[in-house]
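Checklist before submission:
- one chain only
- standard amino acids only
- sequence pasted in full

Submission:
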Amino acid sequence: MAFRISGLSPEPFRRLFGLRDDELASLGVKRYVADKPQAFPCRVEMRDAAPGETVLLLNHVCQPADTPYRASHAIFVREGAAAAYDRVDDVPAVMRARLLSLRAFDASGMMLDADIVEGAAVEPLIARLLANAEVSYIHAHYAKRGCYSGRIDRA
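Returned file contents:
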């Protein structure tokens, strides 16, 4: 079954790019300079920031549905990220390299199923979850820290 993985739109974050650290702090946002590879995964571009690039750490409502599963958590966004990742049947390296928690939701935002998988072997789990006709979409989270990674839909 074909699937689409998408990152977040950069639009809500653009107003933060270039703000001074004290301005960011007043909004609950912290700027970091990536100091090692594979440590600062951008949720817009679905790639790890390279050492020397700046990222913003902020709280993001990843599950806005008015259900018990409404959720928010910390995410990184690369400062200056311009385009959301959006690909069919292509798992980005940022997901492949991590343990993932996949959470399948119905159209009203109720969780129907969930499981964990090494990112290198995620396709069979995506297929299993999407085989359920009641599943409307899947959220991928980085299992160790619980942070939202990206959205998976039928293509």
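Reviewer check: The chain has one domain: 3-154.
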